[in-house]
Amino acid sequence: MIGEKIFYLMHNDDIVTTIDIDLDTGNFIKIAPKANLDLLPLGGNISPQALRNWWNRRAVPMSQGNIQHILINNDMNTPQLFLTKNLGLSLTDHYWIKPIDSTLTWGKVNFFTNDFIDEVGELQFKQSTLGYSDGTPAVSYYPSASLQGDLRKKWVVNNGKRYLIKGNVGKSFRQSINEVIAARIHALQNKMPYTNYELCQVDSADGKIYGCRCESFTSINVEFISAYDVISAQKKRNDISQFEHFINVCVSNGLSKDYVREFLEYQILTDFLITNVDRHFNNFGVLRDTNSLKFIGMAPIFDSGNSMFWDNPGYPCHNDLKKIEVNSFKKREMELLKYVKKPTLLELSKLPQEEEIIRLICKDKQGEKYCDSIMLGYHKKIALLEKFSHGEKIYQQF
Questions:
Q1: How confident is the model at residue 128 (pLDDT cuts 50, 70, 90)?
Q2: SS3 182
Q3: CA distances, 319 to each of 309, 369, 374, 393 (Å)
Q4: Taking a C-beta distance cutoff of 8 angstroms, is the pair 186, 345 a contact?
Q5: CA 266 to chain centre
Q6: How far apart are CA 59 and CA 350, in angstroms?
């Protein structure tokens, strides 16, 4: 038994509250009754238990890549302990923990202005072609301790910019290809902010394969708040949906109601087009000014890899796409269309050329094998959205 230690929960250089942490598990043992209520993290501001839950889900999930094996080999039995050893630091927001007897400052430890080499993240991959700006990191903490999602991931620094590199499930790299396809669609639509993904080569046990990379959309002045934390920040009324509740919380934090609704509708339409089945509440959110704490906009659309029938590429040939299940505001993607009041937000005349999509799909052996089936599903979606854009309530047929 190592015992426990007292930390300050910090936002930048401001003290949020005081917490006792179990140094065997990394769990919060005790939270001081007094706190700076304005600075409490959204999603952890309702109660002490909500703050504990926020900390627990901040840690890298054990399901991510081979992180469980890495932690066990380094005598860390929980991801929360890994998070504690790395001061809870993240490239998502500006929260961290500081031992009460420490002289550390935000300027000395943050990942936004200090270079780093994420050695634990590197263990998820052998290497990548994207290098580092400096051979000697300014901080020895690892952003992988707070990196979310199940895919192998790591953060790297290149010429002063922070890039996230992602792998795929299994030997196929269709998820990375789908990120590039989605980014291309958003670029041509030119309607809403989006994350630009590029294919990159990464080393693996099977040799060089494709992953994808994107530049961080957070900074020393801007942080990301997930939809999960937005929804959890205020109690939902029983008479409204989570969709409307999310919009209401955004409005109470300074965003325009019409803007938020239009963004969500556009995201639903584009997800429907590419059959993105995994728009869960950690896969979208808002950007917040780290000084004023006001919401400044919706976060660029990201994490669209679980799309284009990635795990069942033969599906469109044998099914009519009526009952596709999703992880989102609704259980089926057809039901999500009920939230859309402006079906013409997605301009079907501004989609990538078919040859461009096929060329990307066929970079992967599985994609090449099932290309006809994948494109059949894509064309079926376009046909459905064409009807929807002309006022036909296609969701009523199902």
A1: very low
A2: helix
A3: 12, 18, 12, 20
A4: no
A5: 18
A6: 40
Per-residue pLDDT tens digits for 20-55: 999 999 999 999 999 999 999 999 999 999 999 999
CB count in 10 Å sphere of residue 353: 10
Which residues 6+ apart lie within 8 Å of 365 measured at CB? 172
Measured distance CA(48)–CA(51) in Å, rounded: 5
Name the residue with tokens 């039995």: 77
pLDDT band at 2 (very low <50, low <70, confident <90, very high): low
Q: What are phi and psi of 258, to 5 degrees?
A: -65, -40
Tell me the pLDDT tens digit for each residue of 140-186.
Answer: 899 999 999 999 999 999 999 999 999 998 889 999 999 999 999 99
- On whether the CB atoms of residues 195 and 183 are closer than 8 A, the answer is yes
Residues 298 and 224: beta-carbon distance below 8 Å:
no
Whether 352 and 185 have beta carbons less than 8 Å apart is answered as: yes
* Secondary structure (DSSP) of 108-141: HH-TTTS----HHHHHHSS-BS---S-SS-S---
State the pTM of this model.
Answer: 0.94
First-to-last alpha carbon distance for the chain, in angstroms, is 58
Element (DSSP H or E) covering residue 328: none
| Residue 299 φ/ψ, nearest 5 degrees | -70, 145
Q: Which long-range contacts (CB under 8 A, 24 or more apart) does 200-208 make?
A: 200/128, 200/129, 200/130, 200/165, 201/128, 201/129, 202/125, 202/126, 202/127, 202/128, 202/129, 202/165, 202/167, 203/125, 203/126, 203/127, 203/128, 204/125, 204/126, 204/167, 206/171
